[in-house]
Amino acid sequence: MEQKELNSMVKKIVSNIMLNNPTTGANGVFTSMNEAVEEAYKAQQNYKNYALEQRRQIVEGIRSGLRPYIEECAKRGVDESKMGRYEDKINKNTLVLDKTPGVEDLSTSAFTGDNGLTLVELSPFGVIGSITPVTNPTETIICNSLGMLAGGNAVVFSPHPSAIETSVWLVKLINRLASEAGAPPNLVTTVDKATLESVDEMMSHPKINMLCITGGTPIVKKGLSSGKKTIGAGAGNPPVIVDETADIEQAAKDIFNGASFDNNMPCIAEKVVLVVEAVADYLLFCLEKENIFKVTDPEDLKKLEKTILNEKGAAHKDFVGKNALHILQQAGVSCGYDPRLIIVETSKEHLFAVEELMMPVLPIVRCKDFDEALENAVVLENNLRHSAMMHSKNVDRLTEAARRIQTTIFVKNAPSYSGIGFGGEGYTTFTIAGPTGEGLTSARSFVRTRRCVLKNGFYIR
Ligand code: NAD
After folding, report:
1. Do 182 and 245 have their domain in common?
2. pLDDT tens by residue, 383-402
3. How far is the CA of 120 from the centre of ligand 1 (A)?
4. Do residues 76 and 174 both lie within one domain?
């Protein structure tokens, strides 16, 4: 064996031992939120003086260093949270590594004229507190780490308790890769136990300069009332409209693929279908060619309602992100195969249509015509300004729907995930800030805009 190979093997073994070492305080993991913030602050004080090229090397070092761990990210995420599908999580984590922008996302702009030159530069915020969801535990930590570090910041993560071990493991790994690429220690930190108190401490800590909250409506609202600059990436209930001009066979495939992806956990995933009556039967016929289970017996529907809705009529968290067969079995609905998606015809008022279920149960609502479908889609999206899809060949209607519904993402004639760059153009993110308007976040969302003016100089026209 060559000396070089031997060195790299020894390095890998040593860092794996360090990664699996439960001691906190090493590799970015702390027992208290205060320590996690203070250490990230120290790291950022150092990091802010790094050259852009050094920043780029660190971000790209993390990106390439994480590639061999994609399967492990997916496996740990599914095993610990007990949600989602391993093979889909591999795709999600790969997407994040492939398409999250880095330092190149930060571009300076300039004004020049008779009075000289004014530059608009993008500077780090400082230390960002990032609260992450259980539905995309590793994807969000990777995506936000790349973007926030590219922006010159340090980041303190507060993960969901149901994905804490996976998150702690990942933060350690990112720290190790960052430091191998030249970063100061603890540029990315977290706590070994995420509690409501530690979240409060993060939100009020004087050394946290910005909050980035990826989660449901209550936690986004909480962040917004903290008094700090907050990026809020909240809940959605993405409707999908299908009109009579659509390629119905393709629409059925796209809806099936989008709605069943990672058991419907992506916040952008199709949550309710509004189909024009004239093509409703054909859409259902085409959907039945996919690996779905269609609920037809009203008794089965009742069983399903009782199982997947809680006493408040919202999604029962025990079934969020679970496989369709598990849901059917728990509901006592017999099904002799392993479907990816359960579909059920409902009214537009049904709780399956109104609530963000985040499980592979897709309500289909028949509508008289396109106008009614659009009206229902707007109501069901509930002004969350998140995502919507439409299958149609009528450009005027596509335009009208996009204008009316005002979502951050509007996907035409494709599965929902095209909207985050999976099979669609554009970069990716797992932090889509509808409520606060940053949209699909990237490095440039995590920086301050600063102006630098030179009077009477460098104007050369
Ligand atoms: P969640 O709101 O239950 O949790 C999100 C994070 O907030 C977790 O870290 C959790 O521990 C923390 N949290 C929640 N309530 C808290 C409280 N009262 N005090 C302190 N911390 C609290 O959401 P989830 O189940 O993890 O994720 C699913 C939700 O997130 C869905 O509504 C989904 O639409 C949304 N989401 C949005 C985006 C987006 O980009 N817009 C991305 C992913 C998920």
Report:
1. no
2. 999 999 999 999 999 999 99
3. 34
4. yes
